[in-house]
Structures are given as C-alpha cells and as structure tokens.
Amino acid sequence: HAEDAHRTDLMTITRHVLNEQSRNPESRGDFTILLSHIVFGCKFVASAVNKAGLAKLIGLAGETNVQGEEQKKLDVLSNEVFIKALVSSGRTCVLVSEEDEEATFVDPKLRGKYCVCFDPLDGSSNIDCGVSIGTIFGIYMIKDKDNVTLEDVLQPGKNMLAAGYCMYGSSCTLVLSTGSGVNGFTLDPSLGEFILTHPDIKIPKKGKIYSVNEGNARNWDTPTATFVEKCKYPKDGSPPRSLRYIGSMVADIHRTLLYGGIFLYPADGKNPNGKLRVLYEVFPMSFLMEQAGGQSFTGKERALDLVPTKIHDRSPIFLGSYDDVEEIKALYAEQA
Ligand code: AHM
Ligand code: MG
To answer: Fructose-1-6-bisphosphatase class 1 C-terminal domain location, by residue (predicted)?
Structure first.
C-alpha cells in the first residue's frame, strides 16, 4: 500500500541531498558531506536548546561548574560546535560566524572548496523565555583553492550555492535550498534524522501579514511608514493585514515562507543600514525567499545583488510574498 510505503520509506535529508547532487557529478559527494556536518551542528544545538531551561533550573547556566569553569552561554557553545563540525568536515575553507569578529581560515591540510557564513544561534535574547530561535547559513564555493582570500566570501548573495536555516521551536525544522527550490525537514527525535516534511515550499504570491518592529516607527523613512500605514488602513477596500512579530528572524521568516506576507527590517534614522547582517542573515533568507517564489529587496536593489565590503556588513531588508515586496518597491521608486 502507498500509505505503508510512505511510513517505511522516509526521505531523510541526506538521501534527499544525495538525490539532488546526483544530477551534479561535479560535487561528487562533497556537498553531502559538508551538509551532514551542518546537520550534526543543528542536532547538537537542538539538544542543548531543549535542555537550556532545565540547566537554568538546576543551576548550571551562567554559573561555575564542579571543575570551576564557567558554563558557556548557549550562543558561544553553538558557535564552537559549528566551527569544529565545519572544519572537521574537510570540505571548508573560509568560515564567517556572527560570533567571531574575524573570519576563520581553515588549516590548509583540512581545506575543501566551500565557504560557510553562519549565525550559529540567532535571536538568542529569546532563549530564556522559550521562544523559537535558529541557526542560519549560506554556502559559497571558493574560486582558487591555493589562493584563498576574504574576497571568497565578499560576493553578492546570488553567487551562493545553497542556504538554509534550522529553527529550534515546538519542533526542530531545517529548511534548505541548493538552488532548485526549497525543502523543509523536521527532526524526528526518536530517529535523530531530519525527514522531508515540507517538499517544494512555495510562498503564497500575496500575503495577509506584515512583520516589523513597530517600536522603531518614529525613525522610519517615508516608504516604510507609508507601507505600514497601508497595512493598517488600506484605501482599496481590502481588510487590514495582521501584524505578527516574534523578534527571532528564523521564526518570523519561517512563518512568512509558509503563510505568506512580508518581513521588514528597514533602515531608520539611527541605523542607516538597519540591523540585520548581510552575509549570514540577509543573503541566506533572501536566497530561500527567491527560491520559494518570493522576493527580497534592500530599499535600493534586489538583495542578492548586494556586494558586501566587510564580513559583518548590515543592510535594510524587505522580503516575502512577491506582490507584497512589489508594493514596497513601488513606494521606494516613487520617492526616488
Ligand atoms: P541578535 O543577533 O542579537 O540575536 O539579533 C538578531 C535578531 C533577529 O533574529 C531579529 O529579526 C531581530 O534581531 C529583531 O530585532 P529587534 O529586537 O530590533 O526587533
Ligand atoms: Mg543574529
């Protein structure tokens, strides 16, 4: 029976990526190996996040343990796990992490052809109240293995090979694109495997939700202010849109991908480049949005056309349903 087959023939993330890569003989399994190391990092963090509340309760977090060493904060721990997993994969070359001021250049003996930019634990201010947090990553290929420089990661987002995030929420979900659509996998804790649960995610063409930190409204520019005003008081007879804002980018983007709508982190009077970081927040999420049929815009250009000049650069960002992003683009065009 088809139903039985479904239950005993699960599509794990490894199997899925191997299938995808078989169409691309050049990658010869290297990408699958890299991804399996990223997946390991995600499982480690998922398990640590699940225990975070418990650790606090029994007095582990933020205090010195029996060995007299201070317990590492979850974001520092996550960073170490990912750096070690990525280096030991033997497939990476340059690593950029939100937690580290400088890029990590992998020892030549362990070098491979991929560069990974990541935020090991985004939204970490939400940990203590149990709200969803996540890991975000984007993957590039180096140009020349014998001559590796920062330029290998200071590339426009459209050059990325793959991007994804893992959300540590009521369930643990990994969303991935290798450039041919977007797929979502849910961690089955009893198997320790990510199983394909959301094949070929497409974002609704138009949404009913907007997502922005309205506390910053006083400092917004005109297009952002006009857009949000239209969401609340539409003039075309359509119903007002709902506001949803978690303050955890992975969770806000995950909802946007599945339900449609738009997520905004605009520039404001105090922060001309907004808050979110280009290499490991804006680019991976923009890549996924486009792959799911949505759009991503900086207020000036397509987000994936942006060329970063420093590894921790920031950019304003508007991303989500195709039609919703068209609206904000029109407002910026009017102003120009
Ligand atoms: P963080 O790197 O300090 O965790 O900040 C990133 C987070 C994103 O997850 C989220 O979209 C944004 O900051 C929310 O910012 P704000 O609190 O200004 O609304
Ligand atoms: Mg972050």
So the answer is: 203-332
